[in-house]
Amino acid sequence: MRCAVDPTLTHRSCLIHPLSGGSSRRLTDVWDLGSAEGSEVRQANERGLMAKISQPRELFTAKLASIYYVERELADKVLPELLEEIDNAQLKQGITGHLAQTRGHVANLEQAFAILDEEPDMEKSAAFDGLTKDHNQLVKKIDVQPLEDIVHAGAAAKTEHFEIATYEGMINLAESLGETEIIHLLEENLDQERDALEQVKMVGRQLVSMQHATV
Ligand SMILES: [Fe+2]
Ligand SMILES: [Fe+2]
User: Is residue 36 part of a domain?
Assistant: First the structure.
């Protein structure tokens, strides 16, 4: 499922894009962001309407749509919500800084779409959604704030690992396609993900040792 994005709207118009060429075909009407989205994706899969990928360039475009979904979710929803739950000042400062960087990641990906002469579109990432769901489930079980911050730091580290692996794979693919400009954009994102991972790991270690000192 690909969703053509209009940042001025609160909802998206989802289209099936035949990746091997031809015109786009509207699958559904416009719907609001939220739980309805998942059911629409399932319906598309059930009907066997998902376009098949047969070329490296098509694979790259699919990966771009997936990481664009991830970065948009992080920038628009996941990181702002996480910031409201964090108590530790250092962790909050780190996540605040990375939220600003993440907005830049979104812009870089939109530039990559433009280089490919495509409209930005999103494809849901089940892996990312799973990480978020896991995190929310664990947080619900935590009873004291210092432990909750350790969980937040761990979730942030997992997300950075996920983004790093994604960008590394995409850069390999972009190299094979000779997309030099896009490689630079992805490398900028990757470098910031790596820095964010090191920072959140360091804060996570400090939170754990502070917790040890109190028991
Ligand atoms: Fe990112
Ligand atoms: Fe990140």
Answer: no
